[in-house]
Amino acid sequence: MILIPGDGTGPELTEATRRVLEATGVDFDWDVRHAGTDVMEENDGNPLPGEVLDAIRETGVALKGPITTPVGGGFRSVNVALRKSLDLYGQVRPCKTYPGVRTRFEHVDLVVIRENTEDLYAGIEYEQGTDDARELIEWIERKGGRLAHRDAGISIKPISITGTRRIVQFAFDYARRNGRRKVTAVHKANIMKFSDGLYLRVAQEVAAENDDVEFDERIVDNMSMQLVQRPEEYDVLVCPNLYGDVISDLCAGMIGGLGLAPGGNFGQGIAIFEPTHGSAPKYAGQNKVNPMAQMLSGMMMLRHLEENEAADALEGAIAEVIREGRSVTYDMKPSRDDPTAVGTSAVADAIVDKLGARVA
User: Fold this and answer.
1) Residues tagged active-site
2) Helix axes 50-59 and 78-85, enclosed angle (nearest 10)
3) DSSP per-residue codes, 227-266
4) What is the value of pTM for the model shown?
5) HSE of 107 in the Cβ direction (CA atoms, 13 Å)?
6) pLDDT of 312-330, one tens digit each?
7) For residues 103 and 254, is the Cβ–Cβ distance under 8 A?
8) Does domain 104-118+159-254 have CATH number 3.40.50.2300?
9) Strands 109-115 vs 90-96: parallel, antiparallel or unpaired
10) Which of 65, 111, 200, 293 lies at a 20 to 30 A Cα distance from 8?
11) Spatial distance between the Cα atoms of 277 and 295, rounded to a whole number of angstroms
């Protein structure tokens, strides 16, 4: 099993998660591999060494801590590079409320399935002022397009029939396998008629081939409003890359925050599990951040490995610690400066104790 600690707070979260996974009684043989800002210097500026990719390909399953993505400059994203290099086209982000969490919503139980390899995250960009950008603007104008201003940076948004078909089919397969009742395709086909319009058309075709599961579709802005008004009406949301990123954070806010938002990335014969949140480098080494998103990602990994009893035990132990409200980090207390808040390692201690009682 590949274990990638990540950077920033990642190593602390990963260590806490390793401890609770081992406390389930499942026997793990960890192969620890490093990626992120901490290994760039020794790898000629590369935050994702090729040997890490090779190890994941060979093993097929990895648990990863968060890795820093710089804003504006530097490398694009280790997470995006992993998804592209390994063709991890399907991302699963469950959003579920647990009793005891501070939130305005109750009984939320949604799954956001996000296409991982296309859309604006494909990274086809042209920097403002470059020859390539100017040539592309001129080409657009020759074709009858009009830009309000020519001093523009440009991103290209590819959405294919192949990519759409496989992610929507993935969503239906996930719904069927997990006893889910409905799949909703999220899009902006009313405006982007040749990209999102293609996505919606293909989603409808796939839905017709999977008519044992209910299907509907929503425009992304309307979807955002409906999620905060009537979340109980939705179940599995399948989204292009960018909308999936945004919608999954909205749903995370509904369940108590990113500290409770797990994720998994799936391709052909490969799966990587990771929390939805970032690496929070300003908190690194402080034993402060909430490890539950990564622990719940570990729970998803157990289900993927068909260790369902262990997964149920881990989820139950986490839920019990949340419900009691004592051994939780500052972000899960009624006040963020609550002096009774505990650190990352103490959360792991509490969950290990609960698992001991359950496994025994």
Assistant:
1) 121, 188, 221, 245
2) 50
3) HHH-GGG--EEEE-HHHHHHHHHHHHHHTT-GGG-EEEEE
4) 0.93
5) 5
6) 999 999 999 999 999 999 9
7) yes
8) yes
9) antiparallel
10) 111
11) 13
